Amino acid sequence: MRASRKTKWLLFSISGLLLTGLGLSLAIDAGIDKSNDLAWVMKGTIALIIFNSGLSLFGRAVAEYSWMKK
After folding, report:
1. Of the chain's two ends, which shows fewer C-beta atoms within 10 Å, N or C?
2. Nearest to 33 by CA among 19, 47, 20
3. pLDDT tens, residue by residue, 7-48
4. Whole-angstrom distance, CA of residue 36 vs CA of residue 52
5. CA 57 to chain centre
6. Distance between CA 19 and CA 66 in Å, rounded?
7. CA angle 56, 19, 51 (to 5 degrees)
8. Contacting residues for 47 by C-beta, under 8 A, at least 6 apart
């Protein structure tokens, strides 16, 4: 069974916003670790990957929304 455009839009938008927030929180935490002279490179890299994944999913949600309106 194929998911409707509205279902895809909801899934992509919610997961995109959640991942964007998580990535931003992890990036801030990595910055705090850097200022305290702790290991931060791996945490910062993972944070950027998660943040960019969230932006990509949210962009896909915008595309699904534009198709819904046609």
Report:
1. N
2. 47
3. 999 999 999 999 999 999 999 999 999 999 999 999 999 999
4. 25
5. 7
6. 22
7. 60
8. 23, 24, 25, 26, 27, 29, 30
